[in-house]
């Protein structure tokens, strides 16, 4: 029995229908769509290693390999591309600066293992306990503080070349509002291209790096077209590793939210039975993240960019993602491509990350809006307010070489304030507890009707 049945005539999607995960179009169309998914994920996936200093080719390799592993674990029934997760940027940057790349990789491995364990629990116990631990006000606060915690990093890069950064940021926004469909969804990638061209015109690639004695242009010219990615091992032995790992644990909450959202999104557009694969999706992303951490790649997550492409094309075939995974792996074996990405100037990254980190924060706020969180209730107010200030200000606690940063402290604060606050408020019947979503006033998403 074939893995995929042919949809219709194999060339077009029938009106009112979608190409289901177990179907495919003809192979030329499938291969073309697989390459399109690589382009869609490329802009965001390469930015994470570029920002954190990880090898781009290695991250691309584990991104493609992780996608294939995801398809295997989910029994080829859940279409998804696993790209670099932005939730890892803050802890990876902090861990690399304080304890080295090996400790950062150890943190990624820890997140992957924990996510897989949560997936096993979800597979057998269902999703209800996750919703109770992390209701909308808590989930939104955690996602938002992860993005806003990175604001100083964005400014640091922006300030190195404010003109290039401003042009890059303007290009990202312009592409997002000027185009619709696929081009609008890769506005960040297009903005990077514009910023890169501006930086080249201003001579940024001709500046010699004192550490290497070479300019980025020379490095690109000398890089081979073919070569093996650069692999690194995690370091669990160093004294600072376990302190670093603590900074990574809140990332698990983000990955759970992203994977659950991805599964529900695919189920909405294909078949509700897809929801039964939620546990497997978490296990698969956990396994892919663990594998990446063991070899020197960035942690992975299901990609919204690619679900956007699926929605636009109405093609949810897993065959497309097998093609995408293989193409990403092949691209990883080109050091010249990796050198091009590594040459992106700080000013360009500053412009992009100003938007990108803010968007991560906005995703958290969107969770509040979508779930109509009632911010007239004190428990909800303080859960969000305290967590955000801790994350934005970069609160930290240090003792005996062990440090907890703003993301960890903000996450703990959100969980403690919400659950303990509700317990006390309900025992005292003060009405300060979370009373659930506020009732809709008028039609959602439109002007009030008389």
Automatic annotation (TrEMBL):
It is a multi-pass membrane protein. Pfam families: Xan_ur_permease. One of its GO terms (molecular function) is xanthine transmembrane transporter activity. It comes from the Bacteria. The keyword Transmembrane applies. This is Nitrate reductase. Its main location: membrane. Belongs to the nucleobase:cation symporter-2 (NCS2) (TC 2.A.40) family. GO terms for cellular component: plasma membrane. InterPro entries: NCS2. It comes from Microbacterium paludicola. Keywords: Membrane, Transmembrane, Transmembrane helix, Transport. It is found in: Membrane. The chain crosses the membrane at residues 54-73, 80-99, 105-130, 137-156, 162-179, 186-205, 236-257, 319-341, 347-369, 381-399, 405-425.
